[in-house]
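Example record

One chain of 816 residues, shown exactly as stored in the release files.
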Amino acid sequence: MKVTFNWLKQYVDFPWSADELAERLTMLGLEVEGIQKLGGEFDGIVVAQVLTRDRHPNADKLSLCRVNDGHGERQIVCGAQNFKAGDKVPLILPGHTLPAKSGEAPMAIKVGRIRGVESQGMLCSPQELGLPDHVDGLLILPENAPVGQPFGEFLGRAASDTVYDLEITPNRPDWNSVIGIAREISALTGNPLRLPEIEFAAGHLSSEPVKSLVDVRIDDAELCPRYTARLVRGVKIGPSPDWLRGSLEKIGLRSINNVVDVTNYVMFEIGQPLHAFDYRLLHGANGARPTVVIRRAAEGEKFKTLDGVERTLASQMLLIADETKAVALAGVMGGENSEIKNDTTDVLIESAYFKPQNVRATAKKLDLRTDASYRFERGADIGICDWASRRAAKLIVATAGGSVIAEAVDAFPGAAAPREIKLRPQRANELLGVDIPADKQAQFLHRLGLEAAPGAEWAFRIPTFRVDLKREADLIEEIARLYGVDKLPSTPPRGALGSNSYDKVYDELAEARRILSGLGLSETQGQTLISEAASALTATDGAPGAVPGVIALRNPLSADMNVLRTSLLPGLLEALRRNLSRKSGDLAVFEIGRVFSLFNGKPKEERRVAIALTGRRSAAFWSGAEREARFDVFDLKGALEEFFEHFGLRGVNYAQDGQRGPLFLESAVVQLGKSVLGRLGQVSTAVAKRYDLRDAAFIAEINLDFLLARRAPAKSFKTLPPFPSVRRDVAMLVADAMTHDAVLTIVKQTKPQNLERVDLFDVFRGKNVPAGQKSVAYAFTYRSSERTLTEAEVNAAHEKLLDQFKQRLSAAIRDT
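Predicted structure tokens for this chain:
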């Protein structure tokens, strides 16, 4: 939304400069995205009157003129031939420059001599002023032009102006208008809001009965709750006056003609989109008066819009029609068959309210976005339809002549009682943390156009232009904006209170990120919305247990973002692909985020943590091939083990996965007791190809909510052992299917005295090892915290452990 400093000044007085206004608007919640300062393109140009015109003594085609510039008389040499004494013309004074033409340097004016005669300025043509009019000679101004008035002011363009480009939030459609923004300034300053006069002079009214000229029939009141039609007769289509054209050009709109420009001007002024029809092109049934019909389109109906494109419509789209044809796409764009033409004499002004959801769906399906649809989509003001229609009619008469039919047709079948919201002043103070007197709170709301409801203490009627106000908290937010958000006191962070459960979770998530970063992983942030095809990859992989349902969007932005993610893994794989495409192929990344799914028809949300590894463990180095080693599944498992250990989750084990799904080549489940935490494994070849992964990729995803509930973060301090350790190495032949976890389970159950740690340091298959078996070698470290262990004590504990291996694993102990 663009608005100018001087346009705002027409409706409310404020004491701020252009830069100060930008700051004030931002503090009110109107973010100023850009500021364009328009220089004084007509600085130094005034309205002057030619007092005398004589022949130049030294040139036949030049005139020597005496002109009045409002402050005195001056002599001007002029070459134009289309003026006479008494005419009023633009005069540029010495020391100023003419507006620069495209590709040319600006022309500076100074006192000079032309054919031996002094000239103290220059009388101007429209071409020299950069105006669109083409005249062979000077620009002749109206007789009532005030002598000495700055020319820019005469045109309605101040000598300088500022254009603000505002970011309007979707919940504030009232800000899509100059008056809506001026109302905010009025509320902030306490200065009155000056609305334009909309009453018609007696000479501009026609007493013809409107019912004999036009009628309105609403066939779908749900999609169009209100429609007004007002008729202006006897207009003359032509160029817009400079003030109107200049106002629109400053905000980036192209001038078309006086009638269409008025509808655009009023749309930006008050926020109500209007449309002007050529009345003679509307037809009734069997030659009767025209009837404006608001109806749904027939499925497949063809309609050519103002841009000359024939469009195929669907049955849910709303049309404006007469008894014989469609003439406009409701809320979006008019039709080519009823547009204002140069010979139009009678104009029908449409001012209506259309259901936002329907306009949005129509504009999106047809890929047709307009200034009108932008406003209707966000919710126009149903209460302003007649006011906007009257305002437009008055401006049309002022710029194009004609007369207005005194009455208008206003079809409003569903007028609703004004909404009311109750306010508790004490509650407002509690939420804001300040003590604002109750009468001051009421004053703030009154300034915004909210009136106290009769007979109800502290209940306020909500005007129709404030569609965003729905509950008490909304009123409190309005009070805060006008009180000044910069005046609200700061409060200690939630974490300082020490008893907030949300802070506890936040701290735990921060700790998880710190641990994973410390393991050499980089954090990524994926999209919450993914494609249905990407979600299908993890239908059996992402969440342990029952297969979740997918939550699909009703109106997705694109096919690539049409469902909520049920797993973090598609996002991590996309991050790998994106980095690989940018020559970054050695990756160790993680993500912490929420996933969404349906279980038994009900939505479910949970936190997950996911890890992905691919490429080399470390950067290439000249000293040896070890640094060229690639990530494998043991790197992934080791990272998980370290994370669990530091995060406070112990007793985790791993088991072969029975169902891998399309995502994994090989996988394992991560368990705590009988509960499944998640899954890890290598990405399948098909998926790796889909994501352009050159090296093997290893991924894991864990239920973080489960970890948060089961973790034991308490840490204890142990002194460094003062006594030496004793190490016993054991190599044994076991069945090839025997797992490392089975060995550790026997160790835990046997509980050998003084055993400090167990390390697997070798696995061997091949020569001298029978088929179906493997050789595994373990290091057992024994240590006492109280004394130095004897050989006999260590041997006794160790022999007990070896006996268990032989009995329970059928292990054959090898000589070391």
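Notes: The chain has 20 helices and 39 strands.
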